[in-house]
Amino acid sequence: MSATTRAVHLVSAYKTNPISWWLAGLSLAIVASLTSNIYVLLAICVGTLSIIRLCRDDSPWAQSIGFYIKLAAIVITLRVAFRIIFNLGSSTKDAFLLLPSIDLDFGFGNALKLFGPISATAFNFALVDGFRLAAIILAVGMANSLANPRKLLKSTPGALYEIATALSIAINLAPQLIASLNRVRRARSLRGQSKGMKAITGIVIPVLEDTIDQSMGLAASMSARGFGRKGNRSKFQVIGARLLAFIAICFMVSGAALLLFSPEQQVLELTFLVLGLALAVISIKLSSTRGTITRYRKEPWRLGDVIILAASLVLMVLAFGGAFAR
Amino acid sequence: MKLVISRLSIAVAGLGSILMFAWPLFISQSSTSETQLAQTVFIVLMPLTLLLILVEFATGDISSKQLALLGVLVALNAVIRLLGAGTAGIETSFFLIILGAYVFGSGFGFILGAGSIFVSALITGGVGPWLPFQMMGAALIGLGAGLIPQANRSWLTKMYLVIYAVIASFVYGALMTLWNWPYLAGTGTQVSYVAGDPLMSNLTRFLQYEIVTGGLLWDTGRAITTSLLILLTGSALIATLKRAATRAGVGRSS
Amino acid sequence: MIQLKDLTFSYLKSDGSKVSETPQINNVNLTINSGEFVLVCGPTGSGKSTFLKTLNGLAPSFTGGVITGELKINGVELLGLEPHEFASVVGYVNQQPENAFVGDTVIDEIVYCAEQLGLPIAQIEKSVQKISELLEISDLLERPLATLSGGQQQRVAIASALVAGQKVLLLDEPTSALDLVGAAEVLRVLRRLCSEEGVTVLLAEHRISRVIAEVDSVLVVHGDGSVTKGPTATQFNDPRFVPPIIELGLKLGWKPLPITTTDAAKKWNETRPEFQAKVLSNATSEVLAVSNLEVSFGSVQALQQTSFSLAGNQITALMGENGSGKTSLCWAIQGSGTRTKGTVTTYKGDTKDLNAADRLEVLTMVPQRAADLLFLATLSAELEESDKYAEVSPGSTAKLFQSLAGRIDTSIHPRDLSAGQQLSLVLAIQLVKQAKIVILDEPTRGLDYSAKYALAKQLNSIRSQDRAVLIATHDIEFVAMIADRVLVLEKGQLVSDSSPLEVLGAGKPFASQLAEISQEVGLISIEQVKL
Asked: Which CATH architecture has domain C286-498?
């Protein structure tokens, strides 16, 4: 086994925790959104695509990358098209594309002057913007292609255990629902055709009733196997977790507001955001420790995950450092 | 006490999320250089905000029966969204979010909205940075639908629901366009936002952007399909859902 | 050990009043010993499921209603607690395991209860190993649940119910969706759990004839609120659900009543009762011709090239194990199912080419999931709609339904009927139509014996009107009672087309119980035995 294949093996999709790929994708997206350097952006596009090629397995979500590539292409085109069509045709200094302009008046606001001369700077700017979006899309696409969503639902924090359960029920039910829609439609024809309203309800109602019955059976089976036991957390702990969440939300929202309305106060802004983020994570952790449920097969953190996470962390620090230094 | 704090958190987080959608309309001029940073920060903040609100709703004890019902409706929504997908302006999943939230209440509606978008994205591969924003938009619509007053006449109920559906369709459309506005139009075009400009002139440009991108047409389609589906199936579905609510011992009052 | 004292359970209407004067379960006093294997039976809709659910809190938690009295398990009073508080003591297995699964793989599913109860990982590991060996699923642990056979799935469900060391196991019709092989697998492990592990098993079943020899005692939920328990031989005096073997004993006045086939065979040999030849109806004119029919789904061939015809004045049974292609064949004949090749000719033409209305005029069918046909909000609305559609005099459907399921309050929601009652309703709706061809897919699942007799009577009258009936079923005793001809499918291939006397005769894979007992040629059903 060569060094590269061994390295790939270490981080490939089925060997890693889904969370690490999501964090990696997210940090690449953040780096992309903070830079205006076309080479960095291109590197991210090419990099994510090759990582996907190397590390993906043959699961259905790994096939979704085609969708992301198409979307990225569409976004670049749209971004440039907007620049060309709705260009603010004031400067003709370094114009490289001279198009006749057309007026479009909606009867409110300024009439739009479509097309007109386009400067190379503006064009470049739009192109970089387009590539930035494409890079973000591909980075998230990478996470989506390499992380098994079911595994991800299993790794959700305990505070979201109920919602994750509901979503896994939904994911399991969806294909059954399509099957039962087809089944009921066929069965309905055995009863005789009703017209109009009855025809729709004649299919929707049995499917819904059937699925609800089924889900109640599932709920009964979950309850009968112990689902719904409450933790033995004190009232103090419960209220404490809620209070912490509230403070976290306040910090986050005011940090966001500062960023938009008074960007001069960089230190305050940064403090609020970081504090909000940290408190949010702590409050979710706190709401998660209920200690009533065992996780028999927790997704372990392996060497591959450590490599992915370390790389993502370095990238993020560099990108944010650069952004705030500006 | 716990409930009061929870409600407060949800309110603040809800306001914050609106800010994260609508910032191009009233960002100050001095922040021009910061917009790229703001966009990035919001890509992180939005999912976290969503998560925190979901935790607030989830820590109020959810029974296995509620979970199962939630699972059913989310799955149903994801499937019918799949059936309607691809045709411009046809939105087949909103009516069920509205009906579900109407019968089961705001908290349920919030989770139902967010969950429906999430699961259908997982199925169709539409996961991206926009996903938390779409989830938040649909979740807020669910939240609002849970507040529609209960009428005791069937036609009145339907009227309330249809009015709400129309408003919700346009609001959702506006929120999503607001989100992609700075991304797709960027700055410096005639239909872009201008930092520090008066609200009205930014709004005007936003409306022009909505028109030239066909967003309004799309929203109209969404409003029509959602209203039609509510009119056609509303009574039967509400009856079925209410029966399920009684069986599961859940509903608006609880 | 389970002790019930004055246990009473009533359903409530949405306004809080009781549904009926007499509670569903009324003043029950009984004891069930550790390691006892108890069969829970009773007529259709009598409340077997409800009774089981009172033993782990699912009633009233999931059914609504009120419960009073005492319920002690291992000496601890548990009445009024939520189901999850029963979880460490009582295991529960549903009718359709695939609908109750929460995991993706076998191991996920098995550990679920242990996880919810917060057991330490080391302990979970140990009990997974033990329980999977006991249930013979050790080599399946990593398999996705969807790839398992019905019998395997049911064993996984049982493992999951017992993983936390529960000593009481409740099963609600665990074999009703299984074929003979799957059902036998499940029964075998249940027997073993009782005798080797001291697990108390309560098994609710409709198809009691094959179970009865395995159990220690029988508990009858009578439907009038009373519940009785005792040794098997003493419990069957209600003609609505007496299994054939007991019916035979009762008919011939055998004492003591034989319960196992071996005992009955011995008794038969001693007494040699007389019996009459089975009267099989002769085929008249051909009503339907299937020729070169083939069905494939993708690369899977569900039905290989098949040709046969159905004649008026005959009831034809279609038998075969799960997955042998019975349902595919039914739908292909009906016309809307997938067909790869071949034709199905009726007097109006090929069913595939007919429009929906013509198809309904030619053919009526009850599909396996009968409830799919129900969509109205009350029983009375369903019955009326049926009369109107079939253009029969008002009340015809109701009358037929009553003969199958007994008298039922028509203001209730059809979904609140028991599975057997829902099937009866759909049978009534479909059989009241005058179509020339009748196709029934598993029409006896969940029906008690009296409902089966009523159905048989209705089918006999349909036969006498020169119409053709095709029944796809696992129910051997029902086939023995009613069929004039039996088709057997094996892996999508029509392997036999002959008289029931041959297919259900002694020593054959589908031998009827009476044939096994008597070993007489030409004797398959109890009606033939003379007093």
From this structure: 3-Layer(aba) Sandwich (3.40)
